[in-house]
Design brief:
InterPro entries: Avidin-like. 0% of the residues lie in helices and 59% in strands. It is mainly β. Strands 1-2-3-4-5-6-7-8 form an 8-stranded antiparallel beta barrel. The N and C termini lie far apart (28 Å).
Length: 122
């Protein structure tokens, strides 16, 4: 499936086989400090699976453009809720050269609640 995609130019950010966890989230977000995100990368295609902290299973698909991820995500919560949303994540490196993601996100339901969250590479 990935072989048909065009290769993006080489980026300073490598998400392949990286694990991330939550640093901070607004109250209307579902991720907690127990939620673990496992990323993969193929060119500018970024994917992740996540679970824990109230999430049974979640999936992210994103497109990497320079220092930004354009993301779509979906999950099934421990309360059996299906949720989906979109986000724009700014990518930075911290003082230890770990990737830090700052997300502006929005749920794709009738309320269209918005929030912000930050994640750090483990």
């Amino acid at each position: 499936m990935y072989r048909t995609l065009k290769r993006a130019k080489v980026s300073e950010f490598d998400f392949n086989n990286k694990t991330f966890s939550l640093v901070e989230n607004t109250d209307n977000g579902n991720a907690t400090s127990e939620t673990i995100f496992k990323y993969k990368q193929e060119g500018n295609l970024i994917t992740a699976e996540y679970n824990g902290g109230g999430i049974k299973y979640g999936k992210i698909i994103a497109k990497l453009e320079n220092n930004t991820l354009h993301m779509l995500y979906q999950c099934l919560t421990d309360k059996e809720e299906l949720k989906a949303g979109k986000a724009t994540a700014k990518i930075n490196l911290n003082e230890k050269s770990k990737i830090r993601l700052t997300l502006n996100w929005e749920w794709l339901d009738k309320n269209e609640e918005r929030g912000t969250s930050e994640y750090i590479e483990n």
